Amino acid sequence: MTDKQSVVIIGGGPAGLTAAWELIKDGGADKYDVTVLEGTREFGGISRTVKHNGNRMDIGGHRFFSKDDRIMDWWKDVLPLQGAPSYDDKKLGREHDMEPGGPDPEVEDKVMLKRHRVSRIYWNRHFFDYPISLSPNTLKAMGVKLTLVAGFSYLKSMIHKLPETNLENFYINRFGRKLYSMFFEGYTEKLWGRHPSQISADWGSQRVKGLSILGVLKNAFQKLLPKKRSNAEVETSLIEEFWYPKYGPGQLWETVEHNCETAGVKVVTDATVVEVRQVAGHISSVVTEDSEGNRKEIHADQFISSMPVKDLVDAIDAGEQAVQGKSAPADMVHIAEGLPYRDFVTVGLLVKHLRLKNTTDIPTLGNPPIVPDCWIYVQDPGYKVGRLQIFNNWSPYLVKDVDNTVWIGLEYFCEEGDSFWNMSDEEATKFAISELTRMRVISGPADVIDSHRERVKKAYPAYFDTYEHMDELIEYLDGFGNLYCVGRNGQHRYNNMDHSMATAIEAVSNIKSGKTSKKNVWSVNTDKAYHEQK
């Protein structure tokens, strides 16, 4: 006999692994029998690092910063901050506030680098600051006439507010109709495959929050002041400094998984949950299936799920019990099945050099030196690519030959099964090279040394179709007292990584304390306590 509570965690991404560590740390193995079920053989979900021929690819780009001090401390406990200059710090004479006694990234691998964020927008063959700033470069690129039109459009939006019944009105209220039409309308449609007028304003309030022209003006003015501000004082979209694992985000989650197993967590890979069984309003067990079709039933006292809500509801009493009429209610199945996602393809291109010249005052690596951007947002509707990542600038250790090659990721938003998703590796690579050439980022195919295409399912939970009934689905799922939905896909919420982790921390807190209300779990990134403006 044992007094231990058994906990099954579905998913080995940030939310699932955070939950596992929160349960097992500090002697938790004496109280909890924890099992993590991961459908793939990798950890980190969309926060994983993909390895290809000595180069590493960050899927989606992950800046490590949070307004939640619990999360910042959590990350630092896993990978301590650098205590000595990294390779590029040394070569460029760059200085940071080093962590006393912290590891030397040139010697040790388990280290978190301090990075400076540079992001720009590509539009009409011009580069603009991201988010849009009122710099001389922006005014020059837009021209006097367009600047005046945008300015008067913004003044009109301050006086005449539109009802925020959709994402289009949300953006217009904050930036004016002209800037919305230039920088938000086409890009949003590219990202979601829907016009902003068809998308809930919830997405904007969650991802953009307090950012507006006034926010940009305030930030620009405060940057002129001598006092240095902490990240807690700056809008999330304007934050310019962040942490980053030496070998990308996947390194952190692989380390967490290793720590969990060492502390007593049972981790099962190639274990896709296909059935969720209930007894008397509680989840009793889950059934997993591996890639060879073998099934296994696992019983537990508590269940933490980061699997997509659509798949979770579909799995509730699936199989034989569903035939007996015990599956999830039809209206809940309808809502869950109607929840939309946007899928994602990254094409990595290793190139000899860039055509772009570094016109900033920020020194960069490379021969010749490259531009300093982490991301370049392609908000020009003439291109399918949504963003460019330059991995050299995230961490020099992501690139095998960081001095003589540039490792670029082209991010494409699409839907599983559409024409772009179904392209062969060769077709997708050829398409990416043609776009990069048209953008004048590279000279042509001869510049490309190597490539890799990566497809990611359910990367972005979307806010349209049946999403408006999400509250009803939450009420149904919360009815299972021992089921906790966490993470981006587990809550069908476009959370940042820190928010996904916070949902897991709240869920574990409830399990430990016996708290029955799950409002705190669902409130992460919605209540004022989690807003990115302090």
UniProtKB/TrEMBL annotation:
Region described as Disordered: 86-107
Domain of life assignment: Bacteria
Any single GO CC term annotated in Swiss-Prot or TrEMBL for this entry: cytosol
Gene3D superfamilies with a match to the protein in the record: FAD/NAD(P)-binding domain
Pfam families: NAD_binding_8
MF terms (GO), sorted A to Z: flavin adenine dinucleotide binding; UDP-galactopyranose mutase activity
Compositional bias ranges of the Basic and acidic residues kind: 87-99
SUPFAM superfamilies named in the record: Nucleotide-binding domain
NCBIfam families registered for this protein in UniProt: PRK07208.1-2, PRK07208.1-5
Protein name: Amine oxidase domain-containing protein
